[in-house]
Design brief:
The complex is a heterodimer of chains A (285) and B (308).
Chain A (H helix, E strand, L loop, with lengths): L7 E12 L2 E12 L3 E5 L6 H8 L7 E7 L5 E3 L7 H4 L3 E3 L12 H7 L2 H7 L4 H4 L3 H21 L14 H14 L4 E5 L7 H17 L3 E5 L3 H7 L2 E6 L2 E6 L1 H5 L2 H8 L6 H13 L1
Parallel strand pairs in A: 3-8, 3-9, 6-7, 7-8
Antiparallel strand pairs in A: 1-2, 1-4, 4-5, 9-10
Chain B lengths: L1 H31 L6 H19 L7 H31 L8 H22 L4 E2 L7 E6 L5 E5 H23 L1 H11 L1 H6 L4 H27 L1 E2 L3 H16 L4 H21 L5 H15 L14
Antiparallel strand pairs in B: 1-4, 2-3
Helix pairs in contact in B: 1-5, 1-8, 1-9, 1-10, 2-3, 2-4, 2-8, 2-9, 3-4, 3-8, 5-6, 5-8, 6-8, 9-10, 9-11, 10-11
The chains are: A alpha/beta (285), B mainly alpha (308).
């Protein structure tokens, strides 16, 4: 049942995360393919966001190894990196369940903040920029171009100069993704991107994610509860329950996996044996 | 009328110096939400550096105006660079190791740095006031009253006000237009998210301290040239005034700091001119109390919005 991932952009091996007596992530291993949209699903409290926090340096895992790989073969051990180097060097970007835009800054500025590092280098750490060196102007122009490109893709061009905090919810979500894409990531981690979106916005989000997979060499890893999104666009699904991986495969395989159904829906007491039986059958088949 | 005009000029000059120092307070508060209590002493140290460099260059009033200005630019750059190192060190020693600790801890260490700097200057430079002969004299007589009272605008005052306006503009542009400025504003709003976009938050905070210290160095040189006497304790008084200016203008706001500086400078000057000079500080601080009662966020500050 384990999917064979050909070209992993991210490899998680034996990840354990312990908070005092609680084992939030329990010996979790999985791969994320560079060309796939991979979904991490599971009931509330399954440890999905904790996994994200370990990947993006918010938490230092208790045990385990998290490796990011670029196409050129460069490897980065994320659990040992300073948190700002994970997006800067290892090129892993993320968004949050609750929106964390820079509300007081304009849409364009939010996208420019995402391109801080190339701009700092081009401006020789601001001094060159002050004296108007041509290299900086060129870099600034390119940064604006990239920002415009993502504003077009997310339909935010008309709002470029509005404060990000004034956008409607759905557009803020898209702006977060656009901002993450401006860091030119190799892996984009999205924590519940469809939360709070209406069906139309959710449809647009699907299109955007499919576009990112198709056009850019960016792998996508997402946490999502909205099954329309998960089943509609993912190539690979990993299911967590109580910090453990209970299933890993294509959407088709996951849809029919009895242990996943049991974890999601729960079972009545008198059905326990029946379900356990089914699970055993499922495992042995 | 003439007397009023003269006081207005004096007040704006003094206010410019306060404003320059206040920007350092307000920028640091904006980004880490804490007051840098060593800032006033960095101002004091930089005025000593300026005095040392001026003496070493052998500048006197007989040096031609062109050459003096050229030399002063050299003095300014030197003291800005050295003050920046002091600012960077303050952050490195007093703030960074305590990031994530409880909020009072870095304030105490900053006061520690402030005491160290004061005593260091007192021991190495002596406790007595250091005089500097005026380097830039002359000026323009704008008006003469019938009884012979003249309204003077000295070259020194023109220099101070011009330098302040130029640097205010440059720093506002850095904050508004450059990538560093955007990173500073991003850190101000959400440090964790900024770091997730690849911004080195520690370095950005250091740069904020450095920028504040550089402006304090400008103020240090201006203070030295304008008053002609400095001692190891000027940092405390000027620091408290500038801090008041930053709070009055709305702490965290750059134009607010400048406006606050002007208001404090003007109140002080007018109070000394029309009432009693002994009570000028009382007047300035009372103004702060009155403004804060009616506008708790200061003149230009944004009202605090609690996030849920």
């Amino acid at each position: 049942m384990i999917n064979i991932v050909e070209d992993p952009v991210l490899t998680v091996e034996h990840l354990n995360m312990r908070f005092g007596g609680l084992l939030a992530v329990d010996d979790l291993s999985f791969d994320v393919d560079r060309r796939d949209i991979t979904a991490l699903i599971g009931p509330n409290g399954a440890g999905k966001t904790t996994v994200f926090n370990c990947i993006t340096g918010f938490y230092k895992p208790t045990e385990g190894r998290i490796t990011a790989r670029h196409e050129d073969g460069a490897k980065f051990l994320l659990e040992r990196m300073d948190d700002f180097k994970i997006p800067k060097v290892a090129k892993v970007a993320r968004t949050f369940q609750n929106i964390r835009l820079f509300g007081g800054m304009t849409v364009l500025e939010n996208l420019m903040v995402g391109q801080h590092n190339p701009l700092m280098i081009a401006s020789s750490y601001t001094f060159g920029g002050i004296f108007g060196l041509s290299g900086y102007k060129k870099a600034e122009k390119e940064a604006v171009e990239l920002a415009k490109y993502w504003m077009e893709q997310t339909g935010l061009t008309a709002r470029a100069d509005d404060a990000a905090g004034d956008l409607p919810y759905g557009e803020q979500r898209k702006l977060e993704i656009a901002r993450a894409m401006c860091t030119k990531p190799k892996l984009l981690c999205l924590d519940e991107p469809a939360a709070g979106l209406n069906p139309r916005e959710s449809e647009e989000l699907n299109k955007l994610l499919l576009f990112i997979r198709k056009e850019r060499d960016t792998g996508v890893l997402l946490i999502e509860h909205d099954m329309n999104v998960v089943m509609g666009i993912s190539d690979h699904i990993i299911v967590l329950d109580y910090g453990k991986k209970i299933a890993d495969g294509t959407p088709e395989e996951i849809r029919n996996d009895p242990s996943v159904i049991a974890a999601y829906l729960g079972v009545a007491d008198d059905e326990v044996e029946e379900v356990e039986h089914e699970i055993e059958e499922g495992v042995s088949s | 009328m003439e007397y009023f005009l003269q006081q207005l000029i004096n007040g704006i000059t003094l206010g410019s110096i306060y404003g320059l120092i206040a920007i350092g307070y307000t920028m640091v508060y904006g980004i880490i939400g804490m007051i840098n209590f060593a800032h006033g002493d960095i101002f004091m140290v930089s005025s000593f550096i300026a005095l040392i460099v001026i003496t070493a260059l052998g500048l006197t009033v007989s040096t031609g105006l062109g050459l003096t200005i050229l030399a002063l630019i050299l003095v300014l750059v030197t003291s800005m660079v050295i003050a920046s190192v002091f600012g960077w060190t303050t952050e490195r020693l007093a703030y960074r190791p305590l990031r994530g600790s409880f909020r009072l801890a870095p304030l105490i260490t900053a006061i520690g740095i402030s005491i160290v700097l004061q005593n260091y200057i007192q021991i190495t430079q002596g406790a007595r006031v250091k005089p500097l002969q005026p380097l830039i004299e002359d000026g323009y007589t704008l008006m003469t009253r019938a009884d012979g009272f003249t309204v003077q605008l000295s070259n020194m005052q023109i220099l101070i006000i011009t330098v302040t306006i130029v640097l205010m503009t440059v720093f506002s542009l850095i904050i508004a237009k450059t990538s560093l400025g955007r990173a500073q504003r991003a850190c101000e709003q959400d440090r964790k998210m900024a770091s997730l976009l690849g911004i080195n938050v520690d370095r950005t905070i250091s740069m904020t301290f450095v920028m504040g210290a550089a402006l304090a160095a400008v103020a240090g040189l201006m203070f030295l040239l304008y008053y002609g006497v400095i001692d190891f304790f000027i940092g405390f008084v000027a620091g408290v005034k500038a801090f008041t200016a930053a709070v009055l203008g709305g702490i965290g706001s750059l134009p607010g700091a400048m406006l606050g500086g002007l208001v404090i400078g003007l109140i002080e000057t007018f109070w000394s001119a029309y009432f009693s000079i002994e009570y000028k500080d009382v007047a300035a601080f009372s103004m702060l109390a009155i403004v804060l009662i009616f506008l708790p966020q200061g003149l230009l500050g944004k009202p605090e919005v609690e996030k849920v």
